[in-house]
Design a protein that fits this description.
Layout: H1 9-17, E1 29-31, E2 41-44, E3 49-50, H2 70-79, E4 85-93, E5 96-103, H3 105-118, E6 125-129, H4 135-149, H5 154-168, H6 172-179, H7 183-190, H8 197-204, E7 211-212, E8 215-216, H9 217-222, H10 226-239, H11 244-255, H12 262-286, H13 297-313, H14 324-339
Parallel strand pairs: 3-5, 4-6
Antiparallel strand pairs: 1-2, 2-6, 4-5, 7-8
């Protein structure tokens, strides 16, 4: 989860932190919290706020269509909604302002379900009103919120990023500064949108990771025509190489028109394990005294650990870099072996 944001988001956060200028009588009330420094909030009935469900709308999110969470509904019935949502005015009905949700769709859905379950409107939602947010600023606020909460998937995140680019012409570097992640991560994510729908679905469901062994699978897939992307995914499924270094190697092989062969990956892994078992035998032998006892408890412990980890690695479609403990242990033993 990201802990810092760049300077660019300060403008968005400043907009979000401004005090609301109006309170309405649409079943709402201004609540001045016990903390005098806390901004004024509107408390709105969840039925009176608008969840955008049109895919073409700047504030659309598929989470607006999700089903209520039974456990959260129960929690809301017991203690209400504690975390304020963010809304902005989107019109008036009979002179009364209406508001659309910028941040907090899930809370609205669950609060509505809580009221339905109670049979009356007993739950209101604390809301910050931010009428000065432009479409681009509102989408940036959504994106930052999702990243901090880790509440989206690569496809949804990529769509939000692209929406910001379309709305205000932000570059990848602009987005990186605004969101607080690297420009490289922005490129990795946006590459998802250049993938075939079948590949996007695999990313969305976490069947495929966005990155694998330091390589962006989305970028690798995006370099192929879409029909070849789908064919490569089907072969990867058949061979069982959807994660780890083997997944990146498989996509690279598909791009080059080579056969995807998980057996080759396993063979390389097995050869690596056999080589190191032989080295470990030589190190252990060098540590023995004529009476059969061993010197160096630390070395013996390292050997035992390395053997166990190597056995785990045997036949797996992975890379040594994914096992830093094994890597450091083998590095230490390798130096010792070189001195023998």
């Amino acid at each position: 989860m990201i802990q810092t944001v760049g300077h660019g988001i300060s403008e968005v956060l400043k907009m979000i932190s401004e005090n609301a200028k109006e309170a309405t009588n649409m079943g709402s009330e201004i609540v001045r919290g016990h903390d005098a420094k806390r901004e004024d909030l509107l408390h709105l009935f969840p039925k009176d706020v608008v969840l955008v469900t049109e895919p073409g709308h700047p504030l659309y999110s598929p989470r607006a269509l999700r089903a209520p969470n039974p456990q959260l509904v129960k929690t809301i019935l017991a203690g209400g909604v504690l975390e304020p949502i963010t809304v902005r005015k989107n019109g008036e009905v009979d002179g009364v302002p209406t508001y659309e949700v910028v941040i907090g769709r899930g809370r609205v859905i669950d609060a509505r379900a809580a009221n339905d379950q109670a049979g009356e409107q007993i739950v209101r939602i604390p809301a910050r009103v931010r009428n000065k947010l432009s479409d681009a600023q509102a989408v940036k606020a959504m994106l930052v919120e999702n990243i901090h909460r880790d509440a989206d998937n690569p496809v949804e995140r990529a769509r939000l990023m692209q929406r910001i680019v379309d709305l205000d012409g932000s570059s990848e570097d602009d987005l990186a500064e605004t969101i607080g992640i690297s420009a490289e991560a922005i490129r990795y994510t946006l590459a998802v949108l250049e993938c075939a729908p079948e590949i996007q679905t695999a990313f969305e469901s976490d069947e495929l990771p966005l990155t694998s062994a330091g390589r962006s699978l989305a970028v690798e897939f995006a370099k192929m025509p879409r029909d070849e992307q789908v064919a490569a995914l089907e072969k990867m499924r058949a061979e069982g190489v959807l994660r780890g270094r083997a997944a990146g190697d498989a996509v690279k092989a598909a791009r080059a028109g080579k056969r995807i062969d998980a057996g080759g990956v396993r063979a390389k892994s097995s050869a690596f394990v056999r080589k190191w078992h032989k080295t470990l035998d030589e190190i252990a032998k060098a540590d023995e005294l004529p009476d059969g006892t061993r010197l160096g408890a630390r070395t013996v412990g390292q050997i035992d650990l390395a053997r166990a980890l190597l056995s785990f690695l045997q036949g797996r479609e992975t890379a040594l870099r994914e096992y830093p403990e094994l890597r450091s242990t083998l590095a230490a033993l390798g130096k010792r072996h070189a001195k023998e």
